[in-house]
Queue: 3 jobs
Job 1
Amino acid sequence: MSEPAIQVQHLSLSFGKKQVLNDVSFSVNAGSFAVLAGPNGAGKTTLLRCLMGFYRPAQGTIELLGRPRKCLPGREVAFGAEACDFPSDWSLRQLARFRSLVGEVSPEAEKEFERLLEQVKLSPSLKVSQLSRGQRSLAQLAWVLASRPTLLLLDEPTLGLDVVARDLALDLLLGFLAEQPATVLLATQDLDLAERLADTVILLHQGRCHWTGTLEAIKTRYQVVTVPRGFAPPEHEAPLVRRDVLEGEQWVVPVTTDHWKRWLEDRGISGRTPTLGEVAFALWHEPKEDTCAS
């Protein structure tokens, strides 16, 4: 097994009296594509900013690429924020040239930025003020990738993009990963996108970690079954989620214990593997104790 590229242990952070992160622990192996998923307010952006050193946690430790965060050279880790902070009166070429001159990026990264802009059909001569929101997001992603980092931390890179721009962004990201091995931690609310890209999943809800592990492992812990309306579950048990459907009721049930397995088998009820969205909804619908595992 590869060494962790990200190792977070017992991370907690509060803003005033509001606890935003509560004893969060997880690891991401080098070379993984990990998705940090959660609804609005779950703590995704705050967690990424802690990893970047923008916030100082009240407790806990962070190691990136095998070293404490403060000991890591800046160019090995790149952060793509949801909001683009480029100066509005500069062209994209001017922006790249300035950051190269001040040593923030290498001259090679400046050239790579222009190459990546061409891939997403953006001219380097465009001023930031001329870009739509979607185009700014594409330029931001191209900028993050241009330095060819070892570790990518991305905050909602496809949020608000139309279908065409989203496909351009994903092609850009996946093309980069095909050329250069890297570890990705991508924060998103889009669980369909997460299921498409991720091999590792971290589920956050209300600042707590509900799951960390492989995508396959979390999906095999549950089954989606359809039963007649009014069907009684096992004694002292309840489905995580019950929904009305045309055929009756649809339940999401845990199958990690023999109790549920036997109950389903005895009644001849077969289920299917849930989507990541169905699992996440079940865990977030009625938050229970943490199920973080690795």
Job 2
Amino acid sequence: MLKATQLPEYRSRSRQKEDRMKLLQWGFFAVLFALSAYGQTLDRVVAVVDNEIILESEMNAQVQFYVFNNKIDPNTPGIKEQVLQSMINEKLILAKAIEDSVSVTDDEVQQQLDAVIQQRIQQFGSEAKLEEVYGMPISRIKREFREEMRKNLLTQRLQQQRFGSASISRRQVEEFFQTFKDSLGKVPEEVELAHIYIKPGFDKTAHEVALTKARTILDSLKAGADFGEMAKRYSDDPGSAPQGGDLGFVRRGQFVKEFETAVFSLGEKQLSSLIETEFGIHIIQLLERRGDAVHPRHILVRVPRTESSDQAAITLLDSVRSA
């Protein structure tokens, strides 16, 4: 177990900026990972920083996030040590922030907490999916993470106060590199890319087949068929089909335009007509409204891509390239 009691005297400006950008994501990921694992395994302390501890579950969660975010081999030597050192540095900055009486308001904590929760909901697809993955309602996730969010914001505030106006010249960068180049890690080569992307359209025949299937499902629903069972049986959305098409409570801005327009125009328990988006053909039912949030479920009928539609897109791209 490591014990840290001193604040590092030097951290590069680029590393400070990178740490600030990732801090809230890392903290949120670590806390939710630890909460979802609570009661399943015994935890242990891997570091003590002033009055703060770092648990093994938190470190492992951040290692997973770091590996995923940077697309590197999880078996790369030294990753755990690198991540743990970063966590220790952040705890040291937190201790200094508390010592210097740095403060954040409850409104700032709530605003940032809501923003991070919404980001996670969008990543998982719905509130229901987020709650399912972490085994607890959104309300509990917010309660559990509120104090961690406050600490993260205190850390950010101190970094901004100490380093926000720092100015480093090119000469200072070059002198630093020459002094420490033997201990600096290698930076992978980077390139800047631009591309033109054309998504293949739907083949007319495949589109008609999908429409016929969707109309049949909609007719069955109007005749009294159970929506949840029909979704489990026929929906092509792997994320919601097992839950009977349930998408949980959502707000505006979380769906593509055509789907969102249809959802927010429905009354409770009302079925939509066939709604076409880039994903296919949808049948939507609104279950409930709660303030500015709605609770829909849907059945998706995908239109399969065909060789002819792919070839049409390739032909168009070839003409653009040769123009």
Job 3
Amino acid sequence: MTHRILIIGGGIGGTMTANHLVTKLYPEIRSGKVQVTMLSNSPWHYYKPAFMYVAFNSFFRDELRRPQRGLLRPEIDFQVEDVEGFDFTSNQVRCKSGRSFGYDHLVISTGCIPSPERIEGLKEGGDHFYQHGPARQLADKLSKIEKGRIFVTVSFPKTPNVPHQCGIAPIETTLMLDDMLRKRGVRDKVEIVYTYPVVSQLLRNCLFLQKDTCEVLPTIFDQRGIKFQRGFTLDRVDPGAKVAYSAEGKEENFDILMATPPICAVQAVRDSGISEAADDEGWLPTDHESMKVLGLENVYVLGDTVD
């Protein structure tokens, strides 16, 4: 009987895991004792960490994607399927196409998705760079602004100890923004304000979720004329008035609101019924030593889907 290893998600984690498994289990795979299958909802592998460069016209979409099949060892059975549900009791995964895939071991590596709609008005009034379409929209605005105020916000998930997406990205893009406006010759007419929420994991009233970075940021920002605020937790946005309101009672106007939005797990994971995360965010309860989903001996989870 062939032992079936099923990997859901063709991002960096899923791709590396599938290839490493083939390397480790090559004799068993060649003899037919083990089969490795990957399901991804796209035939393309996008290098998503670089979408922030799209917002600054440094990369275009075709430069940041490769055919997923070409990144996988030939021994891997790759299928383009959009997973819609998990049946952990019968070891089955259901897909929107109507197909089902059985498994003996399952690896869930479906990442997270930006969810600006979770904050009132943010989807309509804000911009972000965590997906290609929104990054292109932001690029158009950044390339045209001549004067005004760019307000930078960061939102954490409500589940304790889960970080915001792409850790250093808010700082990196703020510094890139300063550099781009200087090159365009409009930096003296555009105010940049970087903010960070009151609570960032174990730290409070800081500028980043790591203490060492927090300590050096004020000097770097002062040198570049970037204003900054500690303790601004974005609560809602008025798109018409272009005002951002904080949970602490502050209100700030903007011409461009460059946000790191809330995130959540993909729909199929949120619907799995095993998440204990706050606000239906969907992160899976994980043994952080073994990466097993708690209570499921044959299911593992990687990357941004971990709680």
